[in-house]
Amino acid sequence: MTVQRLSQVSRLLAATLVLLCGGLVTFGQQSFGGSPLMMQEGSLRSLTAVRTVSLDFNPADYLSQESWTETVQTKPLSVGRVIEHQVDFAEAAQLVGTVEGQNIYRLKIELEGTPVGSNLYYEDFYIPEGGKLYIYSPEGKQILGAYTHATHPEHGAFATEPIRGNTLILDYEAPVTGEMPAIKVQGVGYFYRPVLMADPGAEHHMSSEDGADPGFARYCQINANCPEGDPYQDQKASSVAMLMVGGRGIGFCSGNLVNNVAGDFKPYVMSAAHCASVTDKFEVSPLQLNQWIFSFHYEKPRCSSGDYATLQEVSMVGAEMKSFLPMKGYSDGLLLELKKEIPLDYRVYYSGWDAAPTVWPRGASLHHPSGDAAKVSIFDGGVSITTWSLGGGADDHFGFRFTRGNTEGGSSGSPLFNAEGNQVGTLTGGSVAPCAMDGVYGRLNSHFDKYKSKGDTWYMAKWLDPKSTGTTKVKGTWRENYQPLAVVPAIIAKIDPADASKIQISWDPVPQHPQGYEIKYNLYRNGRRIASQAETTREDLVSGDMKRKGRVSYSVEAVYTIDGQEVTTPTANYTLYTGQLASRAPLTVSTGKTGAKIKWQMPYNTQIVSKIKNRDKIAPLKASSGVDDILRYYNISKKDIYKIYMYDSYRLGQSPLNGRKLYIHQINFIPSQDTPYKPNGSIDTEKNISFFIRQKVDGRPVQYYGLIVPQGTADKKEFFSYQLSRPVEISDDQLLDVGFAFDGSNITGAIYIDANSTDENVNYDGCKLALDLKDEYNIRKFTLWPEPYSKNRMAYQALELVISDNPKKQPGVTSDYYTRGELPVPFPEIKSYVVYRNGQKVAELPSDTFVYDDAEGKTSDDYYVEVVYDYPGELRPNEPIRRVATSEVKLYPAHFTAQLQLTDATDVEAVELYSMEGVQVAAFAGTQLMAMDVASLPAGQYVAMIRTADGVKTQRLVK
Questions:
Q1: Is the pLDDT of residue 881 over 70?
Q2: How many CB atoms lie within 10 A of CB 257?
Q3: Phi and psi at residue 458, to the nearest 5°
C-alpha cells in the first residue's frame, strides 16, 4: 500500500468575489453510467493506493465570511476551496485485480477534516479508447461515471462533480490494450457547503435543494413549473447553473444559453461579469475556465416544492471567454462559449434575445436562488433604466420590483426575459433581505455594442451577430426539435362508487414528442410495478392488506423509447385511503326552543405520519445540536442566535392531497427532558423545548408550541403525547419541516432520534440543523447549517404527527388512528350528515352544517347522526357512537402555585382572574390559554371568569 501525506502549504488566496452567488447543484456530466467492476472491494485499504490531503486553510474562516452582514449582495456565498494537490493517476494508482480480461487500477484520495463533500480538478484529463473511469464513495452509494474517451476526447483541464464526504475512490478499467489514462489531478475541492452531491441510490441528489426563501413568514420563490412559469417553458431549458472556480475559491452563478444571428448553435452562455471578477479585469485563467461546470434541467418536476427535483440534470465542462463588460463602470455582462458542442440528447433550448433600447414593462427571470431548483420571478410594470448603485455604467441597468418571486444568492447572472420570451438583461444584484423582491439587471442593449470601441471583448454583438448584419433581435430555437421529455402531470385513484372492490386509476397523458417517440407508462403500487401500458387508465382490486393498512400508493412514469432504449421521467404520485372511517358523529342533545336541539361535531378521523420504521423496535438515541461546537469553531456570536432548530423534512408533494385539507393536531415523541421550572415555579423558557412547524406558505409564520412534559417523564424513554393548542393546516405545495426548537442560549440542547429509522434520503431530509441568526441590520434568517446535527448516526427523529381532516381542536389527546405512513393521505370527503331519531331518518344536511332543531323530538329520544362520505360504506365500520355529554370547562389545579391550565380550551375565548375585591389581576387569550403563568400573583383566593361563545362560567381558585 502506498500512502503519502502532503505537508501544509501557504494559506489559500481570497475567494473570487461574486454577487448573488450561491449554492448550485449539477450532475450528469457527459458520462455513460454503469458500475465499477470491483466496487465491492472499494473499502479494502490493503488493495488500494491512498493519497491523504492535508488542509491548508480553516473552513471556519470562510464560512464566517457570510453575506448576512451585507444590505446588498456584494459577497459570495463561499461553498468550498481548492487545495493544491498534484498526483498522476498512472503513476500513483495500484493494480487491484482483473475482471473479464480488464485490469482494474485504483487510487483513493482522502481529505483531512470534515468536508460535506469533495471533488477533483485536473490539469489533464484524457481516457483512451476502450477505457472507463469511475469515481465513487467508499460505501458505493455515490457513483460518477463511467467517464470514457467521449467525455473529454482531447487532453486538457477538466473537473468532476463533488461526492459527499471526504473520500474519493477512482477506479480505472483499462482497455484490452492496457493503455493507461492521462489523469493528472491538480487540486482537491473541499466543500463546506453541500452542493452537487451525486447519489443514484436516492430519489434525488440535491443537497442544496429547497435552500431558498430563508424567511420566517414571508416566502416568495416560485417553481419554474408553476403556472407563472408556463409562458417560459422553452426558456427553462436554456437556464444554466454554473459551478465556478476562481483563484482558490469555488462559487456559483446562474446563466442562460442563447441563440445567435447565424443560427449555428454555438454554445454561448450569457451571465454576469462579476461571476468571474469584480474588477475591470477578467481574472480567471484559461485553465480554471476549462474547469467551470455548466448544468441544465435542474428543476422540480411539477409546481410543488414538496417534491424532489428531477433526475434529468446534465452538464458540460469548460468554456472560453468571449465578452466581458465589468460591473464597475459598465453593464456587468459576460458571454462564454462552451468548449464543446452540446449533445443533442441534452435537449436544451437556445434562447432568443432582444438588444433594443426598449424599457420592457413585463416579463420574468429564471434562476437558481441559493442553489435551489429553477425558480421563476415575474414583473409587471415599474421598470426603469438606472445606474447600478455600487458603481455601474450610466444607464446600463434595469431596476424594478417583482410582482411575484424574488432573487437570492445563486441567482446572479440569471436572464431577464421580456413578455415575448427574449432575453433582455442579466442579473447584477439586489437586497439580501428575505423576500426583498427587488432586482437590478444589466441591459443587453449595453452589453451588445455600447462599448464596442474598447475592443473585441467589450461587446457581445461580435459573437451574437458574427456577420455584422445589424440584427438586434433573434428568436429562440430548438436544435433539430430535440425537446425535453415531459413528465406525467398528475395521477388520481378512487374507489369505484359502484363496486367497492375496485380502484379506478387514471393519469394525465404526456404530449406527443416532436421526435415521434413511442410512449408508454409504468404504473407502480407501493413501489412495485404492476403494469406497463400505453393507456392512461387502469383498474386495480382492493385487497385485505389495503384495508388493514388503510392506504395504497400509486405512482406512474412516462417511458419513452429512444433509439431502442427506454428512458423514464420522474413519477407522479398519489396515495389513496382504503381504511375504516367513523360512521357516526359525536353529538349532544339539549332542549330546543321547540322540541330537541341536536348538535354534532365533524368526526375525528386520525392518521399517524412518521418516519419511524417500526414503533415496536424503536432504538432511542439522544442527539445534541452541536451548536456549542459551532460557536467554538466559527465566528458567530451566541447573542446573534435567536433559536436553534433540529428537524426532519417531509416531501408532501410525493403524496398530493387532491384539494383536501389536513391538520396536525398532536405529536407523539420521546422527550429528552422534563419541562424545566424556575425556583418561583414558572417555566424556564430559555431551557425548555418547543415543537415547531415550518412550511414556506407566504404569510404563514413558523408555529411554535412550548412543550409541557411532567416531571419524571423523560427518564422513561417512552412516547409522550402532546396536543397542539390549535390544529395546524399543512399544504402539499411545500416541504413540511417539523421538529424541535431551543432558545439561542441553550446551545447544548438535545432530542431523541430513532437509530433504526433511516433510508436513502436521510442525508437530505433528516438530522437537519438550522439557526435563527440576526445581523447588524437586524435581518433574521432561517439559516440551514451545512452539516447535520447527528453525524455519527444519520436517523430520523422519534416523532409521530397525529393528523386529521377535522380543523377543530379536540378534547384531549388520542391514541386511536386509522392508518399510518411516512406521508399523509387525504381522507374521503364528507358529503352530508343524516339525523336519525329512534332509528328513523328525520333529516339530511350538508357537510358544513352541525346543528338541527327537531320540533317533534324530545331529549329522551334516541338520536344518532350518520356521516355520509364520498366512499363506499362497505369499507368502513358501522359501529354506533354514543351520545357525548357536554364537557365542562374548568381550570386546574384549583389550588395552584405557578401555572393554570384548561381541561378543554377549544371554545374558550378568554380567561380573566379577579381578586375577591373584584379587581382584575390577570387576563389570558389565544395561545396563552395553553399554559397560564400566574406565578407572580400573591397567595389568596381568586375568581376566574371563563368566556366562551356560549357565555361565561365562573370558578373559585386558591393560591
A1: no
A2: 27
A3: -100, 5
